[in-house]
Design a protein that fits this description.
CATH topology: Beta-carbonic Anhydrase, Chain A
Strand content: 5-15%
Protein name: Carbonic anhydrase 2
Keywords: Lyase
InterPro entries: Carbonic_anhydrase, Carbonic_anhydrase_sf
Distance between the termini: 16 Å
CATH architecture: 3-Layer(aba) Sandwich
Largest sheet: 2 strands, antiparallel
Family: Belongs to the beta-class carbonic anhydrase family.
Order of helices and strands: HHHHEE
Number of domains: 1
Enzyme class: lyase
Number of strands: 2
Helix content: 40-55%
Structural class: mainly alpha
Radius of gyration: 14 Å
Length: about 80
């Protein structure tokens, strides 16, 4: 997460509220994890074999108890998310 915070330092610096900044970093981390799972050789192999597999990018808020879809789901290698959600 430190690497991600460093990569996103410019964007995060613009968010004054510490809680909102932490939430944004969490969202960025979820997107990065979706990218990592979508790049996993086992996942790629499943897609290559035509198996149905979708990686979802969701984040849960302890504050309000809601699960939010970050709309970065991947169901094929060609649908991998971009770095910025």
């Amino acid at each position: 997460m430190r690497r991600l915070a460093h990569e996103r330092a410019g964007e995060l610096r613009l968010i004054e509220d510490p809680e909102m900044r932490a939430n944004r970093l969490c969202e960025c981390n979820v997107v990065a994890q979706v990218e990592a799972v979508a790049a996993n050789p086992f996942v790629r192999d499943a897609w290559r074999k035509g198996q149905s597999l979708t990686v979802h990018g969701w984040v849960y808020s302890i504050q309000d108890g809601l699960l939010r879809d970050l709309e970065v789901s991947v169901s094929a290698p060609s649908r991998a998310p971009r770095r910025t959600p």
